Predict the structure of PLP-dependent aminotransferase family protein.
Amino acid sequence: MPHTFSRRMDGLRSSAIRNLLALTARPDVISLAGGLPDPDFIPRERIRKEAERALTDPASVQYGETTGLRRLRDVLAAREGARIGRLLNAGEVVVTHGSQQALSLLAQVLLDPGDVVVVEEPAYTGALQVFRAAQAAVQSVPLDRGGMNTAALQELLESGVRPTVVHTVSNFHNPRGVVLAADRRKHLAALADRYGFWVIEDDPYGELFFDAPAPRPVAAFSDRVIRLSSASKILAPALRVGWLHGDRRVCEAVELLKQGADLCGSSLTHQITAAMLSDEAWLALHLDMLRTRYGARSRALTAGISSAFGDSAALSDVQGGMFCWVEFTDDTIDTAALLRTAVEHGVAFVPGSAFGMGAHLGAALRLCYATCPEDVLAVACERLGDAYLAHAQS
Ligand code: PMP
């Protein structure tokens, strides 16, 4: 049926992998596929108390400012300003409906159809979706143990490619788990200044470090960086509080579009989030708990995977966040096919091909350790090892 939907919808369809993952919702399957925080680590009691307190204020149930509750933007400006080493004010921060909305609004603000966007390979699938919907010409640069290979980006630029936007997940990458090296952050910022593209530094995982914090954000080194972060992984996804900060003109353009998108965010969850983020003593304890618990889980998973696959796979060196990336040394392994066998063995993951077009992604997979306790992760790893053997013999 021609002309039923806009041209924008042509390139967007539910992927085969998404359909396959629908099979993994069976109760007997341990899913390491989703990227969900553990609900037991979400501070529901504190959220309940803050919600009760907020509800005594009529403003909490009223429309609010499009850019977000002023008190929340003040807290965020102080926190983000400390990270980039510069005084930020509330006018440089926009609160969005999760950082996913920030990505989506930025794509509309910055991109015309056909504009080049450079993503990492592998890339965050939610970013790929947004850039495809914006009808951008998506190109990729490889990612390695030090994050985005900025030398490869420089080569691309020197070959004449002129991106409008470069997207990077700088800390504890989704799906690769890695951290962008300090020198590459400066290099990326310098390239943005020299070639005049925008960097979207997408950082929902930076607070979830296990031993040491990640290096200073890319945004510390150039005004052409728009930084995104979120309350989803540290407080609760259901608050739907994300934010962006950066160039004031970009913030104003995002505000204009957001008026048309949703008028404003939820005054109630903005109040709750502001209260929790400004209670520094509580937040420090809460973040310590998350770092310790997720750190223990990451170690349980990497130990289990090492013993399940031995030398046949290489694992990312996980130092924070929620994900571990596994690459099989035998690059003829097709992890999308392996997923079918794995589900029969009661375990699920996301095949690498979900995260980009590169052929080498087909022999890789992403595991999320955040949602399962250590003993369940150990069982999941055994099942993965059995599935791998069964798949190799079939
Ligand atoms: N960016 C990255 C890299 C993510 O992994 C996610 C969530 N999976 C998001 C953005 C969006 O998260 P939210 O909208 O909940 O803030």
Notes: Residues 35, 98-100, 124, 126, 169, 174, 202, 204, 230, 232, 237, 242 surround 4'-deoxy-4'-aminopyridoxal-5'-phosphate (CB under 6 Å).
